[in-house]
Amino acid sequence: MKKTAFITGITGQDGAYLAELLLKKGYHVVGGFRRLSTLNFSRLDELGIREKIKLVETDMLDASNLIRAVQEVKPDEIYNLAAQSFVAHSFKNPILTGNITGLGVTNLLEAIRIVNPGIRFYQASTSELYGAAAESPQNENTPFKPRSPYGVAKLYGHWITINYRESYDIFACAGILFNHESPLRGLEFVTRKITDSVAKIHYGKLKYFEIGNLDVKRDWGYAKEYVKGMWMMLQQEKPDNFVLATNENHSVREWIETCFNHIDRQILWEDKGENEIGRDVKTGEILVKVNPEYFRPAEIHDLLGDYSKAKRELDWEPHIKHRELSEIMLKADLEKQANPKRS
Ligand code: NAP
Ligand code: F7E
Q: pLDDT digit string (tens) for 34-82?
C-alpha cells in the first residue's frame, strides 16, 4: 500500500523538493499551506508537481486545525517544515516567530499524540541552534547558544520534539540542518539575493546591490540533497537527531566573488565596514555596497557542520558544495532574467 506523507510548509523551498522526492518514491503526498489573500504555489509549479499533491489548509498557530488535518489525512509520516524561517525578520517579529516556529511544533505534536502516536515525525531543526558555538565544527553534542528569536524558537521546537519522543514514545526525529540553498530559495536569503542580483547586473537590469555583513561564514549545501536526508531519518529503526552539513564554510564575500567569477567579472574591495564597496576590476563600476540596514542586532559569525553521524548511520553525504551550488543557482537566475515570464 502507498504510504502517505503530510508535509507542512509545502509552499517553501524544502517543502517543494521533499514533495518531489516523495512522489518519486511512490508516496501519496499531502501538503499543508496557510490561507493567504493571494496563494503562492510557484515552487510546486516550477517543479511541475502541483497537480500531484493534495493540498490541505493548515496553520501552525491553530492546534484544532492541525488535529483536524491529521485526522483527515491519516499520514504515516509528517514532515514539519513550516516556520517563520527568516532570521532577520525574527528580530522584528519575535512573538509571531515564537508562536509559529516554536509553539507551532507542540500544536502539531499534540495532534499526533491525540490522533495517532504511531505517526513518524520529522522536525526541521537548524544550525541556528548553535549560535555563538563553543566549538568548531558543530555536531549533535555541541551545546546550543542561539543568537536570534528564530534560533530560540527553534530551540524550543527541538527540545519539545525530543520530549515527545521520550514521554510518549513517538518516533520523532530532529534534523539539525545547516544552510541549504537552491534556485527555489527565497529572494530574501543572502545566497539567492546574490545570484538574483548578479544575474540582473549581467543583463543590465541593475547597477549594484546592497549587502550586510560580508565576513560571516556559513556551511552552505544543496537543498535537494538535504531533503533526502530528512526522509532517511524517518526510515531508521530508532528515532534520533542528525546534523546535515557539507563540512565546508565560506563567507558572504566569497559568495559574491564566486558568482561574479562565473560571469567573468572580478571584484576589487575598497574601504572597510559600513563604507565598504566592491568595484569591477576592469571598468571601475560599483557593483556592491555595504548597507548597515542589513546588519543584525546579534550575528552568528561562523558555522561549520560535522555530518559524520549522518554518514555513518544513514549513509547520507553531500556532493554539491560552494562552487557548484553557486553555479547551479546563478545559471537558474540568468535563465530567469533572460526569460522573465518564467520567473
Ligand atoms: P521557507 O522557504 O521559508 O518555507 C517556510 C514554509 O513555512 C512556507 O511554506 C510558509 O508558508 C510556511 N509557514 C510559515 N508560517 C506558517 C504558518 N503559520 N502556518 C503554516 N505554514 C506556515 O523555509 P525552507 O528554507 O523551506 O525551510 C524549511 C524548514 O527548515 C523551516 O522550518 C526552516 O526554519 C528550517 N530550516 C531551513 C534551513 C535552510 O537553510 N533552508 C536550515 C535549517 C532549518 P508561506 O508560503 O505561506 O509563507
Ligand atoms: O543569512 C548575512 C547574514 O538570511 C546568512 C535560514 O534558512 O539558514 C538561514 O538563516 C548570513 C547571515 O540565512 C545579508 O547576516 C549579509 O549571517 O541567508 P541568510 P541565515 O540567517 O543563515 C538557517 C540555517 C536557518 O535555519 C534559517 O531558517 O548572511 N548577510 N548580508 C545577509 N543576509 C541576508 N539575508 N541579506 C543580506 O543582505
A: 999 998 999 999 999 999 999 999 999 999 999 999 999 999 999 999 9
Give residue 299's Cα distance to chain centre: 18
Distances (CA, A) of 93 to 1, 24, 82, 153, 294: 43, 37, 16, 12, 16
What secondary structure letter does DSSP report for 16?
A: H
Instruction: Assess whether 126 carries a catalytic annotation.
Output: yes
From the list 130, 150, 164, 307, the catalytic residue is: 150
Nearest CA to ligand 2 atom 20: 87
The answer, yes or no, to whether any atom of ligand 2 lies below 6 A from the CB of 217, is no
Question: Residue of the nearest CA to atom 20 in ligand 1?
Answer: 59
Ligand 1: nearest atom to the Cα of 9: 9
Contact yes or no for 239/29 (Cβ under 8 A):
no
DSSP bridge partners of 4: 28
From CA 318, how far away is CA 310, in angstroms rounded? 10
Q: What is the 8-class DSSP label of residue 178?
A: P
